[in-house]
Write a structure and sequence with these properties.
517 residues, mainly alpha, Growth Hormone, Chain: A, 23 helices, globular
């Protein structure tokens, strides 16, 4: 994704402030739409008459469509101009948001979420580029700080806002809220930037590679989403999806490595910094996103939390991130970025270990503390890793590297959400079976408990149902503990990949370039 506005003079005064706010609003809306849906899945699933795991398709469909669209940003920008693409992306996002809110079935909602994710692809990279073009080069760090603050505020506001809307209005309004924000951002951006449009030219696009990309990623995501429901490889549908995904992926690799204008430049993976940095970023983001989806589901489904309370548990994640991100940005040129990344992964491991100790009796404050600490990890996560990924690349390679690394990261987030919800259900069933073995009238403890319940006025069936609900709650909690413990170990293992990366030689230049894309 090329920086669309290198030759443009910087803005000044009130115009610069208003332009920054408009671009920030668009970014806020985009990031908000990911986090706002997480706490609404149980309510949404209930209203549409689907299971919780099916409800998470609303999250994964957006993520995968968004990932596929990101590499197209460079082509669209060169063909139509950065400002036109950015404003069109916002307006299409608004329309898609309205259609999401109007959906009356899961199929409709997922379809419109795919469209919403696809049209949102260019928004974040172009908002960065346009913002950087508005500031003098000497103030590029300030521009990136403003942009990063927006992306950190949204995860704080999203769960709180999504929970409150779900509990007090209805879930469609988590999408309708985008309409006024998007229209305002699009209107102001067009008014200020339409005369700062970037040059356009006819550029080729790799249609074959794009189609192969859509097929293999789409098939794999559908397989992950529906695998648990269809009993994985005992299902013909899952086997067919797996074969399609593997075959098209192989064709995709061959085509992209031989085409003159590939949709993604796979040759970048020959560079150690790129492949190890992208792997660390993407796997780390997939683990993080899987846990972000899992926590509110457990809280609402098994701990009796409302959507608002579940949102309040997640909201503190941005507080320390907002405070510490400027410090990271200011010192990224002075401190080895690998140290920041190690701090981020180590902190993620700590908070996930803390969550692995939760029980059904854990109180609200104890559950919220890891979310607060997680802000340290968020502040040191993205910018240092992107700095390492881009280090050593020539300027002409950075747009392709940005597109490919973001594609893999966002795709990993969608896969992470599917895998975590699927494994959670399987582990819950396994723990339920083990716990239920001990509930029978031959067990003195069980017999005593059942007698106590029947003595309280329950009949035998009601008493068994009550005990079964308790077992479900314990099983789900134990399953969540399994996943958070495994996640903590994975983050520790990922630290090794960070130290495979060579430190950047010209750090300040790399940071500026990284932020520009």
């Amino acid at each position: 994704m090329a920086n669309p506005a290198v030759a443009m003079p910087p803005m000044q005064g009130a115009m610069l402030v208003v332009a920054s706010m408009a671009l920030a609003l668009a970014t806020f809306m985009n990031v908000l739409d990911v986090s706002i849906a997480n706490v609404s899945i149980p309510a949404l699933s209930g209203d549409l008459g689907v299971s919780i795991s099916q409800g998470t398709w609303v999250i994964t469909s957006f993520a995968v469509a968004n990932a596929i669209a990101v590499p197209l940003t460079g082509f669209l920008t060169q063909r139509f101009g950065a400002v036109r693409v950015f404003v069109s992306s916002i307006l299409l996002f608004v329309i898609a948001s309205f259609l999401c809110g109007m959906s009356t079935s899961l199929g409709m909602l997922v379809f419109f979420r795919v469209i919403q994710g696809a049209v949102a692809g260019p928004m974040i990279p172009l908002s960065q580029s346009l913002l950087l073009s508005s500031y003098p080069k000497a103030k590029a760090g300030l521009a990136l700080t403003i942009w990063s603050m927006t992306t950190l505020v949204a995860p704080v506001a999203g769960p709180l806002l999504g929970g409150w809307i779900t509990d007090n209005i209805s879930w469609p309004w988590i999408f309708y809220i985008n309409i006024p924000i998007g229209l305002l951002a699009a209107g102001v951006t067009w008014a200020l930037y339409r005369k700062r449009e970037t040059p356009t030219r006819q550029v080729p696009i790799d249609y074959v590679g794009l189609v192969l990309l859509i097929i293999w990623v789409g098939s794999l995501q559908i397989m992950l989403d529906k695998g648990n429901e269809l009993d994985w490889f005992n299902s013909t549908e899952i086997i067919v999806l797996a074969i399609i995904s593997v075959m098209t992926f192989c064709f995709f690799l061959v085509w992209e490595l031989t085409d003159d204008h590939p949709v993604v430049d796979l040759s970048l993976f020959r560079r150690r910094n790129f492949w190890s940095g992208t792997l660390s970023l993407s796997v780390g983001y997939g683990i993080f996103f899987g846990n972000v989806v899992l926590l509110p589901l457990w809280l609402q489904q098994d701990m009796g939390y409302t959507a608002t309370l579940a949102g309040a548990v997640l909201a503190p994640v941005g507080l320390l991130a907002i405070l510490l991100s400027p410090l990271v940005g200011k010192n990224i040129a002075k401190v080895d970025p690998r140290l920041f990344s190690t701090l981020a992964f180590g902190t993620f491991a700590l908070i996930l270990w803390m969550r692995s100790q939760f029980t059904t009796q854990t109180d609200f404050v104890t559950i919220m503390i890891p979310s607060l600490i997680q802000g340290i990890a968020m502040a040191a996560f993205f910018v240092p890793l992107m700095t390492l990924i881009f280090s050593g690349l020539t300027p002409d390679k950075i747009p392709a590297a940005s597109g490919l690394s973001n594609f893999v990261r966002i795709m990993a987030g969608g896969f992470g959400a599917s895998i975590y919800t699927s494994v959670w259900e399987n582990r819950s069933s396994a723990h339920h079976a083990v716990l239920a073995e001990h509930i029978n009238f031959a067990n003195p403890v069980s017999e005593s408990a059942l007698k106590m319940l029947t003595g309280m006025g329950m009949n035998e069936q009601q008493a068994l149902s009550f005990v079964n609900n308790l077992i479900n709650q314990q099983a789900a909690t134990l399953a969540a503990n399994d996943l958070t413990w495994l996640s903590a170990l994975l983050f520790i293992a990922l630290i090794a990949f960070i130290w495979l990366i060579h430190p950047p030689k010209t750090k300040s230049a790399v940071v500026a370039d990284a932020g520009a894309h």
